[in-house]
Amino acid sequence: MPRRNDTRGNAAIEEFDFQEGDALILLLGPSGVGKSTFINNYSGQELATVTHAYSTCTRSIKPIPAPPFESNPMIGGNRVVLIDTPGFFGGDMNDAATLKQIANVLRPQGGRPRELAGIIYLHDMTQKRLVRETQMSLSLFEEVCGTGSAHKAILVKTQWSRTPDTSALRRGADLNGTFFKQMIDAGAQCVDIKDGYTERHVVQHIVKRHYGASVAARLLVQLQQELESGLCIPQTAAGKVLKRCLLELLLYTDRSQLAQISATRAAIEELAWPPSPLQKIKAYFKPILAFLWLRRRRLDSSTEPTKIA
């Protein structure tokens, strides 16, 4: 059975104290690309869990407050919140649940959309060719952001060697002219983490631009706009792309990978539209179970014995 990450992930989001004025930055990218490492390198602290195993270390969405490292008076006392996400198409994760968690951060059920300061998409430059899962992750990122909000996005090429060889530099230039071209043409920026340009520079650029922008320029990203219009996840462009990618992956997955096949099928079922009667029942009870789980956690924490010094 695949590990479930939807209920716990949503509860973690509900527990986080989002504040008015937060500079929210969403990190997206394939599994193992270094999203958690990016957060730790920016903050100079071990705020996100990093492993070097083959399986993804981030199992659910995690908002992580970090110092702004910025003296710009426009920022004031506001926080920078980096939102760590699991990589899509990375194994036994339910990708539909992950997309729903992202949607729940961007637009809480029954609440107003949360404005993003920016979206960072990370790409691993040690890849000598773009594998299927990497191309799918990029397609999904494009539909979450949308070309109309591309100015909020930064495409970040990471994991360069200390002295990049000619072929790596050529691959970087090729990316800008091919797979990254649509978003760059629409207004996204593309940067390299090398030669003294660090994660801190990326975040500072986003924060300065966000607090310096007029209210009119602060657009919602495409997924938020679609949810605001009344669409549900399977009806959104991101939901449709995710379902198409999962169906394609199912064709190529080795039959021995039972956990991955099970997770993929479960995600495809969740993205079905219109929903089946069983899905409607699950959807009805899911928030109730999440509420009960959160209430139990709070009760457990309140009944812990007080330590006497």
From TrEMBL:
Signal peptide: none
Pfam family, one: MMR_HSR1
GO molecular function terms attached to this record: GTP binding
Domain G positions: 25-96
Protein name (Swiss-Prot/TrEMBL): G domain-containing protein
